[in-house]
Amino acid sequence: MKIISNAKIFSFSILLLLPSTSYSLYEKPKNHIKTTTFVSKSFEMGLGSIAAKTFEDIKFPKGHIGIKSFDAELVNQEGNSIPSYETYLYHWFAIKYHKNITMSLNPKLHRPEDAFFKRNEGTCNGGILSHYWGFRVESRGTSSNILDPFAIEQGNPTKIKKGYEEKWLFNIMVIDTRGAQDKKCCIECRCDHMNLPKDFYNVTRDIHNQPLTTNYKGGFQGSRRMVSFRYKISWVDWNKHQVPVKVYILDSTNRIRSNGSKIIHDCQVEYTIPENGDGDSPHVQKANIPIEKGGYLIYGTAHMHSGIVNVTLYGQDGRTLCTSTPKYGRGNEAGNEKGYLIGMFVCYPQPGSIKIHDGEILALESRYKNEFCSGAMRHFYIYLAEELP
Ligand SMILES: *[C@@H]1O[C@H](CO)[C@@H](O)[C@H](O)[C@H]1NC(C)=O
Ligand SMILES: *[C@@H]1O[C@H](CO)[C@@H](O)[C@H](O)[C@H]1NC(C)=O
Ligand SMILES: *[C@@H]1O[C@H](CO)[C@@H](O)[C@H](O)[C@H]1NC(C)=O
Ligand SMILES: *[C@@H]1O[C@H](CO)[C@@H](O)[C@H](O)[C@H]1NC(C)=O
What we know:
Layout: H1 2-5, E1 34-39, E2 43-46, E3 50-55, E4 65-76, E5 87-100, E6 115-118, E7 150-154, E8 164-176, H2 183-188, E9 224-237, E10 243-244, E11 246-251, E12 257-258, E13 263-264, E14 270-273, E15 283-290, E16 295-304, E17 308-314, E18 320-324, E19 326-328, E20 341-344, E21 355-356, E22 361-368, E23 373-385
Parallel strand pairs: 7-10
Antiparallel strand pairs: 1-9, 2-9, 3-8, 4-7, 4-9, 5-6, 5-8, 11-23, 12-13, 14-23, 15-22, 16-21, 16-23, 17-18, 17-22, 19-20
The structure holds 2-acetamido-2-deoxy-beta-D-glucopyranose (NAG) (4 copies).
One 2-acetamido-2-deoxy-beta-D-glucopyranose binds near residues 312 and 323.
């Protein structure tokens, strides 16, 4: 998360160019949805290794468009999906940034204003949870589709300053757990990869108690392979028939306070479930999050880790806006790995049926199994439309 929290974010007033003509359902035009599958540069993974990668200027549909879906997963060199019990997609984030087109090639001459992130409309502080899309491996089983005529508008030329261009980057982290004895522990709770001591892999014998060779660089000895990040985007060209939705990512670890004149959102991103929980009842974490500008709820889902029981977003009056529940795998194949969190339930309320008011304080309540876990996440993704067709 380092790269994200250190990011310099400039806020601009958002000019939402809403369609001026209302359009009737009876004249519904055919939406020409285009879909392209892209593949990142491949990178090598060995047993026990961790890769934390940032891919800048990724391939992304060009022009003024509305994104309808965004799916991603890990594949091997043959293009086959890799099961989680082999190489685990620990996180992926797609982050938008604007870049000075004629910026110097010399990094020493780069000014902060030459490249900066353009965050979603979420409430978290600074660059925290600023991505538009991004989960873990459960992306495979979580719908990212946005129903017609709604879409996430991107590449609007009136929102890109002269001399700049809009680009996207991926930040991903992948853990190769082949050969690991406790795969769940490795992926869920002990991956403090940012602060590993120099002698973290301070071992002289492998898991079969055989001495390691002198060129040993960490991880377990074993086969290495090339892995790529494959992503599929569907989009439409932007026109008056598309209705924009705003993307919010809420965090149930948000510690809201005020400095007297302004609400400060202090999202922790991660959370530790303490060791001595109180038995069977789930561990509950709540936050009351004010939403400055409301809208109609079009899409809702959560990002949580294995061990999630459920998570619910409530309105200020206690009405349920959306509950998301996990899907756990039962098989062996990629996307259905036994015991792994493989997907999250997505809410698609009838457009217009759920309205979040300006200034409404939403209550986010997440439940995990009451077991020690560090790095647990409790994020809720909502898409809001300010107007209906
Ligand atoms: C982009 O960077 C170049 C080189 O530093 C600078 O001359 C130019 O003014 C910058 N453009 C904008 C729009 O700031
Ligand atoms: C790593 O090995 C050295 C030499 O055997 C030892 O002094 C040191 O304590 C070890 N570190 C850890 C974290 O085990
Ligand atoms: C509160 O924060 C806002 C935004 O950062 C700032 O403009 C304002 O001066 C702050 N007020 C106080 C009393 O610190
Ligand atoms: C969430 O889980 C708790 C504990 O199992 C249960 O009591 C509650 O009914 C669930 N909430 C929803 C909305 O499913």
